[in-house]
Amino acid sequence: MSRVTVITVAYNSSKILPGLLASLPEDVRCIVVDNGSADTDATRWLAETHGAELVVSETNIGFGRGCNLGAAHSNSEFLFFVNPDASLAPGAIRVLLAAAEAHPEASAFNPRLREGDGRLAFKRRSKLLPKSHWLPRAAAEADCELPVLSGAAIFVRRAAFETIGGFDPKIFLFHEDDDLSLRLARDCGPLRLVTGAEVTHLFGESTVRSPRTAALKAWYMGQSRVYAARKHALPGAYARALSDALLQLASPLTLLSKRKRAKHWAYLRGVLAAYQQNTANLPLPWG
User: Fold this and answer.
1) pTM above the 0.85 mark?
2) How is the chain split into domains, by residue range?
3) Residue 259: exposed, middle, or buried by beta-carbon count in 10 A (0-12, 13-18, 19+)?
4) How far is residue 275's CA from residue 287's CA, in Å, rounded to a whole number?
5) Whether CATH 3.90.550.10 fits 4-201
6) Is the pLDDT of residue 274 over 90?
């Protein structure tokens, strides 16, 4: 399928990457972007074993910029950005291509996502959209137009991706898929769910779990939320993020959990760090 390139961004993901690579059809090109990992040699071996191409970034440049780097090394009509902790059901790409042919007005698509236990994982809302744009959970039962895409598996026309300039390089992590979705829908065409194509996503397994990793992700979540909300002209972008951060810290559940205290404190620090900065790609406050 020369019309499609699968692109996955890996950061210390060699333990979970085999599931994705093994699920890909042999005739589909796959580019693995190693994002400054410590396990680059293992990822290189996996890529070679499964016939994938490896693009190495010497440092972790963030998820969105990693996707952009992979896209720059491809020339196919469609780009399929898939998380390394995901795997495709047989025929998923073929069904997505058929949906793209049936809906030429659409710019990008989500397959139906399932968690590891088989439950549906349906992204039906976004902090960047008013509640009036959110979908009911039942909408996941049939093909439909989406308000926002899940970044776990985005099937997008290259022409549309290039029209909007790809992922925003100012967003290191989190809300980059929401931002991409809103720009695609505004400038290129609707977003659609394709229920006949399925992808299983082991949420949160793409990086090693640790208290430090959880705090790091929360910090980026905080600053990305402020940046993306400001970018899309949401009223009270900073105030709302700050209010949510303080409410999380004040929760009794947070007070009783050392892990949650560290996570929510890091989120607050991320919100505060973004207050005067027009980016969600700030230097880390700790080494």
Assistant:
1) yes
2) 4-201, 211-273
3) exposed
4) 21
5) yes
6) no
